[in-house]
Amino acid sequence: MLTCALQSGSNGNCIYVETADVRLLFDAGIAARTVQTRLAGLNRDVGQADALILSHNHRDHVCGAGVLQRRFGLPIWVTRRAWQHCRADLGTCPDVRHFAPGDTIILGRTSVFTVPTAHDGIDGVAFVIADRGRRLGIFTDLGHRFAGIEDWIAELDGLYLESNYDPQMLAEGPYPGWLKNRVAGLGGHLSNPEAAQLVRDCARRLRFLVLAHLSEHNNRPELALRTAREIIGPGLPIALAPRHAAGDVLRLD
């Protein structure tokens, strides 16, 4: 299994995952041309992707989906409720397929488990991609450490995990009070310490961790990385998913 974050953060999210027999995009919060260019940098053709799977309706996860579908013919997988809330902004999409939170999407020999989250988007889900005994998790926009997440994390070999904000930076930062409360609330995001503690408590077989969905105003990459390392300890490879570029290509063999 091969994966690369094409971009991650409130300015847009898109993650590429390639298994033995399918090529998948998770979320499309960046322009279709940007997806095409960044995949070309990996010697991959976006037109050969087998599906685009959307985690929820927020713009930073869906805004490029319509153009990707029309230009490259990617089937869009999304819940019915999330689709109802974003379809007007995406334009005509001839091939939209639906799942319910908690469903498993089967694509070839690859299974994509959809894990309901507590985020305040419509029908928010995280993803676990399983192929040939390896499991990769995409866990962003979680809300909080919801019941059952520990069991999923324990079975992962690789993990994209939101490490959205530093609590002190959020408290002292420019956001209005209502937005600070939303970010740190039950429907918002995990902080750096919360994300790191989750991994420390639950991960059993993890081979790499990618810190994702970092806030532009309430976090710094070096701070998120330092916090993770201090709490998790040495040994586990930890990478960062960039806000304005593609990240590292990672493999699970």
Q: How do you describe this structure in short?
A:
The chain is an alpha/beta fold and 253 residues long. The protein has nine helices and 14 strands. The protein has a single domain (2-250), classed as Ribonuclease Z/Hydroxyacylglutathione hydrolase-like (Metallo-beta-lactamase, Chain A), CATH 3.60.15.
Question: Would you give an account of this structure?
Answer:
- With 253 residues, the protein is α/β, with parallel strands linked by helices.
- The protein has a single domain, classed as 4-Layer Sandwich (Metallo-beta-lactamase, Chain A), CATH 3.60.15.
- The protein has nine helices and 14 strands.
- It has helices at 32-40, 59-62, 65-72, 80-90, 149-154, 167-172, 177-184, 192-202, 221-232, and strands at 2-7, 14-18, 23-26, 51-53, 76-78, 96-98, 104-107, 110-116, 125-131, 134-139, 158-162, 208-212, 238-240, 250-251.
- The strands form two sheets. It has a seven-stranded mixed β-sheet. The protein has a seven-stranded mixed β-sheet with strand order 7-8-9-10-11-12-13.
- Helix 8 packs parallel to helix 9 (221-232).
- The longest helix has 12 residues, at 221-232.
- The chain is globular.
- The N and C termini lie close together (6 Å).
What labels describe this entry?
253 residues, 9 helices, globular, seven-stranded mixed beta sheet, 30% helix, alpha/beta, single chain, Metallo-beta-lactamase, Chain A
